[in-house]
Design goal:
By secondary structure, this protein is an alpha/beta fold. It has one domain (about 25-330): Rossmann fold, CATH 3.40.50.300. Helix content is about 40%, strand content about 20%. It has ten helices and nine strands. The protein has a seven-stranded mixed β-sheet. Strands 4-5 form a two-stranded antiparallel ribbon. Strand 8 and strand 9 form a beta hairpin. The structure holds adenosine-5'-diphosphate and ligand PAZ. One of its GO terms (molecular function) is pantothenate kinase activity. Pfam families: PRK. It catalyses: (R)-pantothenate + ATP = (R)-4'-phosphopantothenate + ADP + H(+). Its main location: cytoplasm.
Length: about 325
């Protein structure tokens, strides 16, 4: 499907984000964007990219060169400037505080490819000449356990704002930003479709933390009782939204589900094991239902409305390749 046809079908293009004649974004085609990589070296091999990509994501070295090297260079400027600003403020305030992690948020729909972007960025950033310590945390570990979701009749709201322990999310980010040592991030298993009880990843004062999840750009409700509650993105120094037209993400979700039947679902420990043995037609119906009744609704109601809050939007086209980049003006 060409971009022109998709637009004719009513999907808004990124350059429609405007307030009157002002748009808060600068827009680039992927080829225009690629030029901003300048002399940034390619530090990943094809084998490494293959290891980092998720099932069904065709990202290759050409895509890393086209999109991710410029992004790595841009992030390097942001991290450097934040370090400089921090030092200037230390002088201004006559303090001697230590710099705390630079946090990058990555948002977007289920099945849009956030994990691949996050893992590729993590590796590229860690290979900067300054060798920063880069950690990656996904928000699924902060979901309530299935037992709680079942008890509260919310299992079919998995991924919706109410399915996350928001207080734990905010406590985690605030500990990271406070520069605390050995902060615990809870873990989730896509195999068991549940949080892993008592399993944590320890995050120990990284230079950069990538925080990835469908709802990380969500805004809070209006304050009640005059009490202002922070939101996850208050802790971000830079945010990225991975975008694509709904019909493409739908296609990617169903295709991935059908592929997982041949791989992950075959494992008897997989929550979805029963879907590995049913007929192709029945499996398609299940995937379509999961998409239509959970993930599409969440995309429309909770995820897509956060897109205009991102510093950078990567708009993917067919084959998961980025076609357009929108960068928020300073
Ligand atoms: N049911 C599943 N079984 C195994 N892996 C899964 C399952 N669902 C998703 N995944 C994997 O989990 C990761 C996160 O998926 P998702 O939350 O849809 O975000 P995204 O596709 O944007 O990375 C991906 O690497 C995906 O391949
Ligand atoms: C676990 C997820 C909510 C993603 O969580 P995230 O890491 O983005 O916080 C998602 O992959 C999911 O399982 N959604 C529920 C509907 C479904 O099974 O597709």
């Amino acid at each position: 499907m060409t971009t022109a046809i998709r637009q004719a079908e009513g999907e808004e293009a990124l350059d429609h984000f405007q307030v009157g004649s002002y748009s808060p974004y600068l827009f680039f085609s992927s080829d225009e964007w690629a030029r901003f990589r300048a002399d940034t070296p390619l530090t990943l091999t094809l084998d490494e990219v293959h290891r980092l990509r998720s099932i069904d994501d065709p990202i290759d070295l050409a895509e890393v060169r086209r999109i991710y090297l410029a992004l790595s260079r841009l992030l390097s400027s942001h991290v450097e400037s934040s370090q400089l600003l921090f030092e200037q403020r230390n002088r201004f305030l006559s303090t001697n505080a230590s710099k705390t992690p630079f946090i990058i948020g990555i948002a977007g729909s289920v099945a849009v490819g956030k994990s691949t972007t996050a893992r590729v960025l993590k590796e590229l950033l860690a290979r900067w000449p300054s060798s920063p310590k880069v950690d990656l945390v996904t928000t699924d570990g902060f979901l309530y356990p299935n037992a709680t979701l079942v008890r509260e009749n919310k299992l079919n709201r998995k991924g919706f704002p109410e399915s996350y322990d928001t207080a734990a999310l905010l406590r985690f980010l605030s500990a990271i930003k406070a520069g605390q040592q050995n902060v615990k991030a809870p873990r989730y298993s896509h195999l068991t479709y549940d949080v892993l009880p008592d399993q944590h990843t320890i995050i120990d004062r990284p230079d950069i933390l990538i925080f990835e999840g469908i709802n990380v750009l969500q805004s809070r409700d209006l304050p009640r009782d005059g009490k202002i509650v922070p939101m996850v993105s208050d802790f971000f120094d830079f945010s990225i939204y991975i975008d694509a037209e709904e019909s493409l993400i739908h296609h990617w979700y169903v295709k991935r589900f059908m592929k997982l039947r041949q791989t992950a679902f075959r494992d008897p420990n997989s929550y979805f094991h029963r879907y590995a043995t049913i007929s192709e037609e029945e499996a398609l119906t299940i995937a379509e239902n999961l998409w239509a009744h959970i993930n599409l609704i969440n995309l429309r109601d909770n995820i897509k409305p956060t897109r205009p809050r991102a510093d950078l939007i990567l708009r993917k086209g067919e084959n998961h390749l980025v076609e357009q980049v929108a960068l928020r003006k300073l």
